[in-house]
């Protein structure tokens, strides 16, 4: 086994390429997540491609696809940002660039910077639905949903979570699918049968891709009309 990471990649790459050219078969494995995704393994793949060395992939666990799959936010279009810059000024510039993305946005972040990142995201992108996931597929897996403002207030109160964090930020409200009020009310009425208000809202939001807060407002009007 050979160690290969961000800090020794430049030194290890020539050795690995030499072994491959000698006819050896190498496997790139990771102790966290999918190799090459926000990972220096992509440099090894790029070097192999440049040298004409065949590369194959056996997919493994990936926080990116796992988080978007269970988020309940639109999955038809999404953008993988990866880690945002640690310095606030650079982070704000990057977030401003992401404002025009017409889909969900996936961000990886360290737990200790999570609250500041969510606050900056709320400042730059406005109020959006978001999901914070941590320790996916592990014993202490947690998925917390809410608006950006709600999530900021939660983590400001409880402190940063433990473990590896992946955040899904919902699309702008003006990019959400257009559904008539009548059709939305019908979907909510059907969802209310056998489900709590919260579960019905989550279900309809996931099915339509509409922001949870807009579905919540429609649900409130319906329930008030019943009383």
Keyword list:
47% helix, single chain, 227 residues, alpha+beta, 5-stranded mixed sheet, Methyltransferase, Cobalt-precorrin-4 Transmethylase, Domain 2
Can I get a quick summary?
With about 230 residues, the protein is of the alpha+beta class. Helix content is about 45%, strand content about 15%.
Q: Can you tell me the CATH superfamily of the largest domain? A: Tetrapyrrole methylase, C-terminal domain
Oligomer: single chain
Rounded to the nearest angstrom, the distance between the terminal CA atoms is 68 Å
Characterize the overall form: elongated
In the CATH classification, which architecture of the largest domain applies? 2-Layer Sandwich
CATH class of the largest domain: Alpha Beta
| Total helical elements | 9
Helix content: 40-55%
Kindly state the mean pLDDT as a whole number?
Answer: 88
Strand content: 5-15%
Q: What's the count of strands?
A: 5
Largest beta sheet: strand ordering = 1-2-5-3-4
How many structural domains? 3
Computed structural class? alpha+beta
CATH fold-level topology of the largest domain: Methyltransferase, Cobalt-precorrin-4 Transmethylase, Domain 2
Backbone CA Rg: 21 Å
